[in-house]
Amino acid sequence: MTAPSDTGRVTALALSHFRSHRQTRLTFDARPVAIFGPNGAGKTNLLEAISLLSPGRGMRRAAAEEIIRTPEAIGWRIAAQIAPDHEVELRAEPGQPRTTRIDEKSAPQIALARLLRVLWLVPAMDRLWLEGAEGRRRFLDRITLSFLPDHGEAVLRYEKAMRDRNRLLRDGVRDPHWFTALEVQMADAGAQILARRREALTRLRAAQQVDGPFPAAHLTLSDDDTPADPQALRDAFATSRPRDMGAGRTLLGPHRTDLEATYAAKDMAARLCSTGEQKALLISLVLANTRALKAETGTAPILLLDEVAAHLDATRRAALYAELTALGGQVFLTGTGPELFDDLAGAHRLEVTETGGESRVSSV
């Protein structure tokens, strides 16, 4: 097995009143982590805690107050040791937003992207190709953020300026100076967003394996022909003002982008593929993202794979484990039974049980 890098890896994790985990402390080494136990025991909660060590609302997109353990409702805390020598603490009190501390100093969430690269695949993503474009944009932006950590800052700037512009539209404001100021901000950030998404997709395409065990996808963006040019976007926003005023919202821009995927070998749109094929495409893209990041940085990202093994036949399951072993990064997998990980040699196995609403974790 390729040894993981000594950087960008979680070596210790402590949870306090985090969902079903009242008090949980774990340490990790270089081995892949196989987490098993019955449904509802609290396996996915462990993965969610690790996902929150990256910018954003984590793999469940939960608000801070939704994570607080009941009935105590005293707030939650995540503390993690990040190799080689960083400490991260996330905390949320009832009625308060989440706070982030890195090496005992307050920090913005976006700073987490410079410590860890975290990718995940969860059952909720199985309908990615069937539902609305918003989920696919989030998926695309997570990919982009993994390559370009400052991408999140551009997205936040764009969304803030757009919210302010939408407020003007809804209020019927006609003063062009107000709109121009916001459209300049949106155009500058929007051009960066468009360019970085395209750059990320170029890297992802190059890292796909055409003849591998998981199918390659042909990826396109619905706005591929939109110039990633600030002036062109400013002009487009200005021209669209009357139409946007009627709708009460901004009708064009990178917030309208859609990611389209085609099963390359079959030349079939992902939304028309079988459920198994759609899952295989998702796994293929996550693995391509991982390979590309390792090739670029020398370090594979942390992978969180929730209930993936149960949906694969024995051949593809073995192929996935072989790929993960070859990549050598830190990986956490969940499943209902230990037999799902028989082909994952040398895994650190954790069993999660639940009694009286409280999760307990033990090494096996």
Q: Could you explain how this protein is built, in words?
A:
It is a single chain. Residues 1-5 have low confidence and may be disordered. The chain has a domain at 126-276: RecF/RecN/SMC, N-terminal domain (Glutathione S-transferase Yfyf (Class Pi), Chain A, domain 2, Up-down Bundle), CATH 1.20.1050. A hairpin with a 2-residue loop joins strand 14 (348-355) and strand 15 (358-363). It has a 6-stranded antiparallel sheet with strand order 2-1-4-5-6-7. The protein has a 6-stranded mixed sheet with strand order 8-12-13-3-14-15, sandwiched between helices. Strands 9-10-11 form a 3-stranded antiparallel sheet. With 364 residues, the chain is an alpha/beta fold. The protein has helices at 43-51, 64-67, 133-147, 151-171, 176-207, 230-239, 241-247, 275-297, 314-327; strands at 9-18, 21-27, 33-36, 76-83, 86-92, 99-102, 105-106, 118-121, 217-221, 259-263, 268-269, 302-306, 331-335, 348-355, 358-363.
SSE topology sketch:
Blueprint: E1 9-18, E2 21-27, E3 33-36, H1 43-51, H2 64-67, E4 76-83, E5 86-92, E6 99-102, E7 105-106, E8 118-121, H3 133-147, H4 151-171, H5 176-207, E9 217-221, H6 230-239, H7 241-247, E10 259-263, E11 268-269, H8 275-297, E12 302-306, H9 314-327, E13 331-335, E14 348-355, E15 358-363
Parallel strand pairs: 3-13, 3-14, 8-12, 12-13
Antiparallel strand pairs: 1-2, 1-4, 4-5, 5-6, 6-7, 9-10, 10-11, 14-15
Helix pairs in contact: 3-5, 4-5, 5-6, 5-8
